[in-house]
Write a structure and sequence with these properties.
The protein is α/β, with parallel strands linked by helices. It has helices at about 15-20, 25-45, 65-90, 105-115, 135-145, 155-160, 205-215, and strands at about 5-10, 50-55, 90-95, 125-130, 170-175, 190-195. The chain contains 7 helices and 6 strands, in the order βααβαβαβααββα. A 6-stranded parallel β-sheet has the order 3-4-2-1-5-6, with helices on both faces. Helix 4 links the parallel strand 3 (about 90-95) and strand 4. The longest helix is centred in the middle third of the chain and has 24 residues, at about 65-90. It starts with 5 loop residues before the first strand and ends in a 9-residue tail after the last helix. Bound molecules: 3-methylbut-3-enyl trihydrogen diphosphate (2 copies) and magnesium ion (MG). Magnesium ion binds near residues 12 and 175.
């Protein structure tokens, strides 16, 4: 039986769900947040220590301004409403991605949320925000060059946002799309990948548990036989 330390999720399909059921992409994003809460709860129930959620990619800036604004307002309100509850539940929040370019108010809120939850150890939720794997790797190489270090796996990993996080055992992408979209390319070298047909707002605890069950039976070779 494989132990699960880390699940990473590309939460895709909010926009299509919103159009289908509410005639609005943004309402799909709102519905997607409910799934986030459910999946955090199931992750705790399953005693998994790391959950990484892809919330906004470096490429998502190409979207219409109105959708981008909606997404960041949604995040801002979610943090206001939930951070104390997360803290009580012993959840640690970590942001991965470049949040320097976000507005000051939100940036401070995110930093403060990381700070007040930093000692928690039941579950670490890594929120990928303005995250792009290629830019993460470029930054790591620049850092290595600046420090005149050798290029090797250890030094690369030390300079990634995920330096203190084990590699994902499982990647789930919902939304019936089979690609990685610039997510954790280095870290997922040996992750088991599950592409889900369901759109993110429809994904539920039962779907999640089925994936966890399947994962446990997989023979992970890492190149060996
Ligand atoms: C993923 O859902 C969530 C974000 C990128 C924020 P999408 O918004 O990509 O939903 P679809 O793929 O357009 O349905
Ligand atoms: C990936 O979804 C990013 C997030 C879920 C945040 P996208 O919907 O942006 O991916 P592409 O553009 O279809 O590859
Ligand atoms: Mg999408």
């Amino acid at each position: 039986m494989n132990p699960v330390k880390h699940v990473a999720i590309i939460m895709d399909g909010n926009g299509r769900w919103g159009i289908k059921y509410k005639k609005s992409r943004n309402l799909g994003h709102r519905a997607g947040l409910k799934t986030v809460e459910k999946i955090i709860k199931s992750t705790i129930k399953n005693k998994i220590k790391h959950l990484t959620l892809y919330a906004f990619s470096t490429e998502n800036w190409k979207r219409p301004k109105s959708e981008i604004n909606f997404l960041f307002t949604l995040l801002d309100t979610f943090i206001d409403q939930k951070i104390d509850e997360f803290n009580k539940q012993n959840i640690k929040l970590k942001i991965i991605g470049n949040i320097n370019i976000l507005n000051n108010k939100l940036k401070k809120k995110l930093k403060r949320s990381e700070n007040i939850t930093k000692k928690n150890n039941r579950l670490q939720v890594n929120l990928a925000l303005n995250y792009g794997s290629k830019s993460e790797l470029i930054n790591a190489f620049k850092q290595i060059k600046k420090n005149k270090q050798n290029i090797n796996s250890k030094n690369i990993e030390k300079n990634l946002y995920t330096s203190s996080i084990p590699d994902p055992d499982i990647l789930i992408r919902t939304g019936n799309t089979n690609r990685l979209s610039n997510f954790l390319l280095w870290q997922m070298a040996y992750s088991e990948i599950f592409f889900e047909k369901k759109l993110w707002p429809d994904f539920n605890e039962n779907d999640y548990n089925k994936i966890l069950k399947k994962f446990k039976k997989i023979k992970r070779n890492y190149g060996n036989i």
